[in-house]
């Protein structure tokens, strides 16, 4: 059972506009967002999503609920799966059970609220300080930023003092200031006291916001040539670098409108790009791109472009981003890599060459497949056996990280061509999951257990009258598939062969086809061939229908026995019990109709 405290915390962290917006096109309408209801057909929007209430409601059909309810109704998944999916998107881990006592849960919630409160107060303080910091304002203007953009990203300034936050917090020694990463406690020499001071001093402050717009951390940039150039909040209960992206909260709508997300290397890149007409940009937070970052972005859009400087550091960062992308590289996602000249970042490139030139760079970005192949072949001499083998060695873990897909097959084919091998050899050598290029090998020609009972009866009829296979409905095929595994495989193989021959199928044509693929049907073919009695097609049709019906009856009886064994303790079990009983009755009536004499 998932603790209620976790559910509450989850709903506090997710943004229902973000969740619903992945599946429904929403437009701002007053305080709410409007769209066409996904739960019934309508031409005029009656579906509203309230960011304030974190609730959706349709005035047409009455559907309503939280983000969890929406995932359940829209995706058709269970409560637990809906919670897990939403939790994964915000970097939370669903607990197996509620091990915390009520008092402990209250303590955890109180600590989380306290941390959130100090972050809001600190952010307001930094923003206020920026208004009077002429050196910081001059720096931002020099970078071409307007007050409007500074306000959109809630930029601030941490003054050049050791304890500026003392003016904000009456209890400067409060433990939550350290836990939130705003101040540092530094131990003096043994026996002396402790010195506490602000972590951020004389820096432009970039608040980091989660999906709901709540401040969870900060990035601070120096104004001069000091080091480090960027200083980030440490890991805290609110903030984990590997799970968050700077600017994602501000860029969500722009990403939907642009159709892609642009991932850059720093805070200033994001803010400058927004100023210059590219508000769909985000940045990693002083750490390498992670699979969680990629997952978050692909929840917003199917098209992600990573922008890196063209120097060695940019190449290394791009390679780490490639590794993070591979588990998510599927046929319906587009992942690309953009490399600017070494002397440029996105800001300087646009200012020197213009927005259209940068847009062209975006359009010409390198696809993931090409970048992967370049990485494994660039430093290897493909004219030699050793160079080709080394390229394969370097490609192996990358391809193993990818899910089975058409994209992976395309990369395998390109690698095979470059290294003078075949796709099947690459898949076998790399032990790729679910290989798709390997030539299918015919199964060993070993005898299976001869079919018995109803399976044999149905197979004998179909071998004699293969045209009857065209009359088998999906229910009959489903019933056949649930027979004993060995005989079910034979029966389904036979049905497929008969149906492939079409309505004009004949015993001779079928016998010839079956002999080419398997010897398992030889006894039946021999038996039918040796039978010199004339078979009545109508009688065979009725006999086949009876065998199918008996098979269904057997399966329903087995299901009924399983349901009874459970004690019918749930509404679902009782409902299914009644359904199975009705299905059995329908089959009995069919049998009675078939037994009635025809006039």
TrEMBL record:
Role played: RNA polymerase that catalyzes the synthesis of short RNA molecules used as primers for DNA polymerase during DNA replication.
A GO term, aspect molecular function: zinc ion binding
UniProt cofactor note: Binds 1 zinc ion per monomer.
Protein name, UniProt field: DNA primase
Organism classification: Bacteria, Pseudomonadati, Pseudomonadota, Betaproteobacteria, Burkholderiales
Catalytic activity from the UniProt record: ssDNA + n NTP = ssDNA/pppN(pN)n-1 hybrid + (n-1) diphosphate
Toprim domain mapped to chain residues: 259-341
Obligatory cofactor(s): Zn(2+)
Keywords: DNA replication, DNA-binding, DNA-directed RNA polymerase, Magnesium, Metal-binding, Nucleotidyltransferase, Primosome, Transcription, Transferase, Zinc, Zinc-finger
Superkingdom of source: Bacteria
Short name of any one Pfam family annotated for the protein: Toprim_2
Recorded domain comment: Contains an N-terminal zinc-binding domain, a central core domain that contains the primase activity, and a C-terminal DnaB-binding domain.
ZnF segments: CHC2-type: 37-61
GO cellular component, one term: DNA-directed RNA polymerase complex
Nucleotidyltransferase recorded as keyword: yes
Family named by the database record: Belongs to the DnaG primase family.
Enzyme class label: transferase
Cross-referenced InterPro entries: DNA_helicase_N/primase_C, DNA_primase_core_N_sf, DNA_primase_DnaB-bd, DNA_primase_DnaG, DNA_primase_DnaG_DnaB-bd_dom, DNA_primase_Znf_CHC2, DnaG_bac, DNAG_N
EC number: 2.7.7.101
GO biological process: DNA replication, synthesis of primer
Quaternary organization: Monomer. Interacts with DnaB.
DNA repair in keyword set: no
């Amino acid at each position: 059972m998932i603790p209620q405290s976790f559910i509450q915390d989850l709903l506090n962290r997710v943004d229902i506009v973000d969740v619903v917006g992945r599946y429904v096109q929403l437009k701002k309408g007053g305080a709410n967002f409007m769209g066409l209801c996904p739960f019934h057909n309508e031409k005029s929007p009656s579906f509203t999503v309230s960011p304030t209430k974190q609730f959706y409601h349709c005035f047409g059909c009455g559907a309503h609920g939280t983000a969890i309810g929406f995932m359940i109704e829209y995706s058709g998944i269970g409560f637990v799966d809906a919670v897990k999916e939403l939790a994964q998107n915000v970097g939370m881990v669903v607990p197996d059970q509620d091990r915390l006592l009520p008092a402990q849960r209250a303590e955890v919630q109180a600590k989380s609220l306290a941390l959130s409160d100090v972050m809001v107060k600190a952010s307001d303080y930094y923003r206020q300080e920026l208004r009077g910091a002429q050196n910081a304002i001059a720096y931002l203007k020099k970078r071409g930023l307007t007050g409007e953009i500074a306000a959109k990203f809630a930029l601030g300034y941490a003054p050049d003092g050791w304890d500026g936050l003392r003016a904000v917090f009456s209890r400067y020694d409060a433990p939550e200031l350290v836990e939130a990463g705003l101040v540092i406690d530094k131990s003096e020499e043994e026996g002396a006291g402790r010195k506490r001071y602000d972590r951020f001093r004389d820096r432009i402050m970039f608040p980091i916001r989660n999906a709901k717009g709540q401040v969870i951390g900060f990035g601070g940039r120096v104004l001069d040539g000091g080091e480090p150039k960027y200083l980030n909040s440490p890991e805290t209960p609110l903030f984990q670098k590997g799970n968050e992206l700077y600017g994602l909260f501000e860029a969500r709508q722009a990403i939907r409108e642009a159709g892609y997300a642009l991932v850059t290397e720093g805070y200033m890149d994001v803010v400058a790009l927004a100023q210059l007409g590219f508000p769909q940009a985000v940045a990693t937070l002083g750490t390498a791109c992670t699979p969680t970052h990629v997952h978050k972005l692909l929840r917003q859009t199917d098209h992600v472009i990573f922008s890196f400087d063209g120097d060695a550091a940019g190449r290394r960062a791009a390679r780490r981003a490639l590794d993070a992308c591979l588990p998510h590289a599927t046929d319906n996602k587009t992942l690309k890599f953009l490399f600017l000249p070494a002397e440029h970042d996105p800001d300087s490139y646009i200012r020197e060459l213009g927005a259209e030139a940068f847009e062209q760079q975006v359009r010409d970005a390198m696809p993931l497949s090409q970048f992967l192949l370049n990485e494994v072949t660039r430093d290897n001499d493909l004219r030699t056996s050793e160079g080709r083998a080394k390229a394969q060695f370097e490609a192996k873990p990358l391809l193993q990280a990818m899910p089975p897909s058409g994209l992976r097959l395309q990369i395998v084919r390109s690698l095979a061509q470059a290294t003078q091998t075949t796709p099947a050899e690459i898949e076998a050598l790399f032990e790729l999951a679910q290989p798709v290029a390997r030539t299918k090998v015919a199964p060993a020609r070993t005898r299976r257990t001869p079919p018995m009972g109803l399976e044999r009866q149905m197979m004998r009829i179909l071998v004699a009258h293969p045209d009857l296979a065209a009359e088998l409905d999906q229910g009959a095929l489903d019933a056949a598939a649930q027979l004993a595994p060995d005989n079910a495989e034979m029966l389904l193989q036979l049905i497929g062969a008969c149906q492939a021959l079409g309505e004009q199928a004949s015993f001779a044509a079928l016998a010839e086809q079956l002999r080419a693929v398997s010897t398992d049907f030889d006894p039946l073919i021999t038996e039918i061939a040796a039978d010199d009695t004339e078979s009545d097609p109508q009688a065979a049709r009725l006999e086949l229908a009876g065998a199918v019906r008996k098979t269904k009856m057997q399966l329903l009886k087995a299901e009924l026995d399983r349901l009874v064994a459970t004690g019918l303790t749930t509404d679902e079990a009782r409902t299914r019990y009644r359904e199975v009983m009705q299905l059995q009755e329908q089959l009995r009536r069919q049998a009675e109709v078939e037994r009635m004499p025809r006039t």
